[in-house]
């Protein structure tokens, strides 16, 4: 049993003892003694044993007082050993604003469920989720409501000319640009410019260790760290010299990019972000340069970049990218004008 549960259990036991002791006399039919004991308990707490009680009532009073005092002492001991005011302490941590663009697809709910169960474990995090849709969906709204987390639910539709067509390679066009920009606009309109925190882009097709959120929380400019399973490599990461400075990027694909890093591999200090209103993403940039286009507004050289994750030697986030499930039978049902398998079921 955890310490918080022990405190709650002891408190509940204290209340139960008071209730049971009062009820005991009624059970015996001795209502007059019960009433006098109850009156004495209410009027004379801390003033010694009430007068004019029978020996049986006095014994019951003394027994109850011993139990109550013992429980109060136990609660006091447990409270001293518990992380006091945990919620209050959590609220004093720099806040993480995690931005997640998402779109309708068979694995959407599975991806968002996995991500939400990670984010729910992170203290003082606000989830900003933006759908690529004409309107907000019931599926995402229901999922967010179930988390119990602080969140903001937005939508921004990508024009057809910028959407990836069927069988088109996913990297041919930038994804999530308008959705991330919608989230950034919401932050600038609704968050105090002097608030302590960071901005992080948490895509829904990644896997995150809790350590990555601890690493980013106190970033002063732009923090960077490795990302696993990306760019055709086991890991892409910043190169860090003996002095703890970022001096380049360990990557194969387009290594000459100003910031050759994955979207999951950096976070921006919130005050710095708020001070640069022009900082956002663009559709009209060279393939693979979205991160560089965004980060150039906040840092001008690698000297300003903060290496995290033990000088970029630990991996706390992975670009897992769930594959599209084969739904051949679902397609066959549609062709045969039969109801889909998920009729009236949210999957």
UniProtKB/TrEMBL annotation:
<keyword id="KW-0333">Golgi apparatus</keyword>
<comment type="pathway">
    <text>Protein modification; protein glycosylation.</text>
</comment>
<keyword id="KW-0808">Transferase</keyword>
<keyword id="KW-0812">Transmembrane</keyword>
<dbReference type="InterPro" id="IPR029044">
    <property type="entry name" value="Nucleotide-diphossugar_trans"/>
</dbReference>
<keyword id="KW-0325">Glycoprotein</keyword>
<keyword id="KW-0472">Membrane</keyword>
<feature type="signal peptide">
    <location>
        <begin position="1"/>
        <end position="23"/>
    </location>
</feature>
<dbReference type="InterPro" id="IPR005027">
    <property type="entry name" value="Glyco_trans_43"/>
</dbReference>
<keyword id="KW-1133">Transmembrane helix</keyword>
<keyword id="KW-0479">Metal-binding</keyword>
<dbReference type="Pfam" id="PF03360">
    <property type="entry name" value="Glyco_transf_43"/>
</dbReference>
<comment type="similarity">
    <text>Belongs to the glycosyltransferase 43 family.</text>
</comment>
<keyword id="KW-0464">Manganese</keyword>
<keyword id="KW-0735">Signal-anchor</keyword>
<protein>
    <recommendedName>
        <fullName>Galactosylgalactosylxylosylprotein 3-beta-glucuronosyltransferase</fullName>
        <ecNumber>2.4.1.135</ecNumber>
    </recommendedName>
</protein>
<keyword id="KW-0732">Signal</keyword>
